[in-house]
């Protein structure tokens, strides 16, 4: 084992969260390293390089807000970004801010143990490197741990098997017989992208999805010029909205308008594009009122019938449950089922019996002969990446053990009691909102917590490890750049000798936040629908509340309340 390396902070994960966390901690003049099992930066976009991979957030918000010059000048020519473009953007940010030397790739966290006597973490890795940071920040991503169904005969297949989250570079599917298992966001994207190229495409569908057009198109230069003039305002509005997707959410109930007006509003949203826009820009009650939800669902079902020519295929594609999974959008998904080379298998009518050497056998005895099987079966979301590794807090108790009885819990989606100086980006019970604005909010809050602890230990100001109003000029108090958690990138911390402080959530704060998240989701139709949002997509996993459903604006208000009340909930 190599000699341990002492650090101020170790960040695990090199995606959107890890990159920005590194930037802020370097600005605080701390010694920081980022490790990632991947071979480069990118996070989920490093791994998910399947055909059709696309963000469903419009391009103007799927980036960082804190580099205003780059916001205005970095090129993008379509309203939605493809996966390779996002990967290139993140590499550009790392290069632009000269951060690459602080990353260590092909390095997996295998064990992390807190030592009370040292006030540090001991982190072991797959490379044999051992790090001893004061602060451990985990930016593992919401959707990282693959969910691979246990289907009999999986290892007998003579062709190629791939999960979309581990797509091999250069894979050529042209002329192949391909089966895609799964039709969530990823399945919809990959099916749409490959249908025109493969010899045969068999889509194995367990649950039909509600999907609307993305509305992707080329960007008008005048649109970009106007956006550049008001970018700061656009981002400020997004961070003070419910879902932060860049549109104004509706306050209008579904049945407050006539049938004709309602149809017109749905049609306008369909033409504009965007899954979240269709659900939350149209009317305010689709996610919690059953009648309103049915009205929206009926509209999409009618659209499917209009698009898909074969009535039986259209029937199979029409969902029958609530429109209450993650809102999807596509670039022509339903149209692919009009192609003569595309077939649809309803797995509820004819389940998979086993995978054979030559393909997939169904319950009616039919064998779908295939050359390639693609698993678009999603992820063990939110907590999956945390429970698969040994992260041990006080007294050797692991996160997996901490969450064993009641499911994944935290305070603010960031901190867990008895795991001192450990902070999660997008941890359990963080906001169910657009990710880049949410990531920025949490990363800035974590940077403030660390800066507060550092000032506490170097200057001896804090008897209890808390402050009354946050540190001077810090993110938590707001700053002139327009962020609620605005960052002062020029501040220098003068290091002095002193005792090392630790900071962590209290059990009472964790319980209160867990109860709030449970209460906020209680009336949501999302909770009444099986999906990864509540962990019900993984076989054997107990469904639980995984998100804060109060929206980003209210979440940011909660963070301000924490600061204004002396870091309430932390000790």
TrEMBL record:
Task: Please list the GO terms describing molecular function.
Answer: flavin adenine dinucleotide binding; N,N-dimethylaniline monooxygenase activity; NADP binding
Against InterPro entries, the record matches this protein to: FAD-binding_Monooxygenases, FAD/NAD-bd_sf, Flavin_mOase-like
- According to the record, the residues making up region (Disordered) are 478-499
Write down the Gene3D superfamilies for this protein, in alphabetical order: FAD/NAD(P)-binding domain
Q: Does the keyword Oxidoreductase apply?
A: yes
Domain of life of the organism in this record?
A: Eukaryota
Q: Oxidoreductase: is it a keyword of this entry?
A: yes
What Pfam families does the record point to? Answer: FMO-like
Alphabetically ordered keywords of this record = FAD, Flavoprotein, NADP, Oxidoreductase
Bias regions of kind Low complexity — which residues?
478-489
Q: By its UniProt entry, which PANTHER family does this protein fall under?
A: DUAL-FUNCTIONAL MONOOXYGENASE_METHYLTRANSFERASE PSOF, L-ORNITHINE N(5)-MONOOXYGENASE-RELATED
* Protein name listed in UniProt: Cyclohexanone monooxygenase
Question: Per the UniProt entry, what species is this protein from, by scientific name?
Answer: Lophiotrema nucula
């Amino acid at each position: 084992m190599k000699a341990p390396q002492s650090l101020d902070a170790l960040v695990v994960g090199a995606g959107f969260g890890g990159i920005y966390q590194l930037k802020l901690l370097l600005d605080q003049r701390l010694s920081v390293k980022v490790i990632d099992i991947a071979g480069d930066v990118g996070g989920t976009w490093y791994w998910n390089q399947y055909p059709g991979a696309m963000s469903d957030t419009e391009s103007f918000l799927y980036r960082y807000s804190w580099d205003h010059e780059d916001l205005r000048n970095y090129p993008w020519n379509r309203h939605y970004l493809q996966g390779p473009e996002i990967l290139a953007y993140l590499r550009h940010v790392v290069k632009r801010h000269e951060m690459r030397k602080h990353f260590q790739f092909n390095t997996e966290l295998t064990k992390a143990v807190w030592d009370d006597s040292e006030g540090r973490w001991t982190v072991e890795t797959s490379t044999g490197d051992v790090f001893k940071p004061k602060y451990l920040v985990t930016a593992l991503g919401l959707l990282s741990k693959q969910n691979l169904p246990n289907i009999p005969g999986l290892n007998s297949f003579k062709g190629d098997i791939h999960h979309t989250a581990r797509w091999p570079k250069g894979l050529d599917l042209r002329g192949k017989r391909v089966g895609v298992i799964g039709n969530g966001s990823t399945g919809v994207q990959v099916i749409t992208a490959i249908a025109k190229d493969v010899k045969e495409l068999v889509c194995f569908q367990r649950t039909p999805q509600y999907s609307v057009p993305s509305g992707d198109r080329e960007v008008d230069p005048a649109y970009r010029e106007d956006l550049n003039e008001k970018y700061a305002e656009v981002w400020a509005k997004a961070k003070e909205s419910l879902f932060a997707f860049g549109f104004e959410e509706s306050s209008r109930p579904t049945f407050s308008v006539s049938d004709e007006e309602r149809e017109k509003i749905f049609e306008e949203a369909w033409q504009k594009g965007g899954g979240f826009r269709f659900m939350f820009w149209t009317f305010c009650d689709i996610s919690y009122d059953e009648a309103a939800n049915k009205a929206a669902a009926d509209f999409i079902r009618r659209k499917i019938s209009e698009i898909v020519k074969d009535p039986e295929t259209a029937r199979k594609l029409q969902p029958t449950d609530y429109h209450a999974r993650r809102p999807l959008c596509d670039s022509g998904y339903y149209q692919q089922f009009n192609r003569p080379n595309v077939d649809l298998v309803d797995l509820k009518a004819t389940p998979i019996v086993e995978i054979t050497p030559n393909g997939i056998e169904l319950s009616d005895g039919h064998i779908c002969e295939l050359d390639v099987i693609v698993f678009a079966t999603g992820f063990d979301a939110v907590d999956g990446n945390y429970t698969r590794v040994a992260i041990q807090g006080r007294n050797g108790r692991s996160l997996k053990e901490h969450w064993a009885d009641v499911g994944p819990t935290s305070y603010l989606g960031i901190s867990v009691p008895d795991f001192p100086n450990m902070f999660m980006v997008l941890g359990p019970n963080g906001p169910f909102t657009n990710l880049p604005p949410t990531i920025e909010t949490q990363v800035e809050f974590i940077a403030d917590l660390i800066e507060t602890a550092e000032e506490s230990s170097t200057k001896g100001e804090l008897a209890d490890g808390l402050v009354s109003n946050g540190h001077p000029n810090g993110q938590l108090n707001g700053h002139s750049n327009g962020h609620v958690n605005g960052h002062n990138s020029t501040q220098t911390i003068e290091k002095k000798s002193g005792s090392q402080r630790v900071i962590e959530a209290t059990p009472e704060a964790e319980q209160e936040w867990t109860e709030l998240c449970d209460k906020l989701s209680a009336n949501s139709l999302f909770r009444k629908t099986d999906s990864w949002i509540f962990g019900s997509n993984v076989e054997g996993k107990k469904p639980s509340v995984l998100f804060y459903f109060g929206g980003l604006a209210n979440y940011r208000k909660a963070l301000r309340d924490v600061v204004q009340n002396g870091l309430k909930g932390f000790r």
